[in-house]
Design goal:
By secondary structure, the chain is of the alpha/beta class. About 35% of the residues lie in helices and about 20% in strands. Helix 6 links the parallel strand 11 and strand 12. The chain starts with a helix and ends with a helix. It is built from twelve helices and 15 strands.
């Protein structure tokens, strides 16, 4: 599954390119609990087609009803939605919050852009598909859009007369090794919105690979890491248990801005890996502190799918800036269990 923002913007581009009336809705403010974070987007076409989400579904239903009725000339006054962007709030009262399925006390505000220009959408989607992080700024007076490359992700900014939102390319995951665990982890990463590449020079493993949607590379892992060019939206995880394949790939990954670099293995194997990489490759202590292992959070996992759940949970926590308690780390949890065992 692709990054949802890219899907929304690409679909909106296609609608506008085909001459369809459409709007883009962006969550710009929330008060209390909210089903979707600030910056979330959805697009709505004149025929009621919708992509993306700004809530759990009820607000989307209301937007679809109101605007398809207006497009069809059935709304009082028969006003077709057009003109400069406008704001709309949902959940201002307790009754409205209940009606729209918002959590207790939840209120959100949307910016609605009517018939965004197809050419600007073309440029934005092309940049995102090319791996560029982009800042999209909307002038509220008339809906004019300015695009500019961004150096780092930024929060949505609602300023004097403008709204600026950062859109980034897909999060990417590079997995070293094409075994059974990798199949489960790749599947979870794909439906979590990551673009997945799997590297394994061993033909016998590649031949059994069965996960559609993941790219498969056959070169040596360190070469694949270099070609992959991990950035702040990338993670690299070694899953082969083979130092000849894992170590050089991890060393190259640790030189990049990848937000997550890790390897599977026991506590003893992890300690041995750190020792090898320090003694033979000269990695500094600061680099080794970035190397996660044994990867995952402790959930007592034993089977490949359970281990994949554990790893994916940790990757998502790091991606979302959540600091996990130390006793959820696999090594720490197992050490504590060993100390308390009878």
């Amino acid at each position: 599954m692709e990054n949802l923002d890219v899907v929304v913007l690409r679909t909106l581009r296609d609608w506008r390119r085909a001459g369809k009336r459409a709007l883009l809705a962006t969550v710009v403010r929330t008060w209390g609990s909210s089903p979707r974070p600030i910056g979330s987007i959805m697009a709505l076409a004149e025929d009621g087609a919708v992509v993306g989400s700004v809530s759990g579904g009820c607000i989307e239903d209301d937007l679809v009803y109101r605007h398809t009725q207006a497009y069809a000339g059935k709304e009082p006054g028969h006003r077709i939605p057009s003109g400069p962007p406008s704001f709309v709030k949902y959940g201002v009262t307790a009754d409205e919050a209940h009606r729209f399925g918002l959590p207790c006390g939840g209120t959100l505000e949307l910016l609605l852009e009517y018939d965004p220009e197809a050419q600007a959408l073309e440029e934005l989607v092309a940049a995102l598909e090319g791996g560029q992080l982009m800042r999209r700024t909307v002038r509220l007076a008339d809906g004019a859009v300015t695009l500019a490359p961004a150096q780092a992700p930024e929060e949505l900014a609602l300023g004097e007369g403008t709204l600026a939102n950062t859109f980034g390319p897909e999060y990417r995951m590079l997995l070293i090794g094409a075994g059974q665990l990798t199949e489960y982890l790749a599947t979870m990463a794909l439906f979590s919105g990551f673009a997945v590449t799997v590297c394994d020079p061993r033909e016998e493993y590649r031949g059994a690979w069965s996960v559609a949607g993941a790219k498969v590379a056959s070169d040596m892992p360190d070469d694949v890491v270099l070609a992959f060019r991990p950035d702040r939206r990338s993670c690299v995880i070694a899953l082969t248990h083979d130092p000849k394949l894992d170590d050089l790939a991890l060393m190259e990954a640790l030189k990049t801005e990848a937000f997550y670099v890790g390897a599977i293995g026991s506590r003893r194997n992890n300690e041995a890996r750190h020792q090898r990489m320090a003694e033979h490759f000269g990695l500094a202590a600061a680099d080794l502190r970035r190397l996660r292992g044994p990867v995952g959070i402790y959930i007592g996992s034993k089977t490949p799918p359970e281990i994949a759940v554990s790893i994916m949970a940790e990757v998502l926590a790091v991606k979302n800036g959540v600091t996990l308690p130390r006793d959820m780390e696999v090594a720490q949890a197992k050490n504590l269990r060993a100390l308390t065992a009878p």
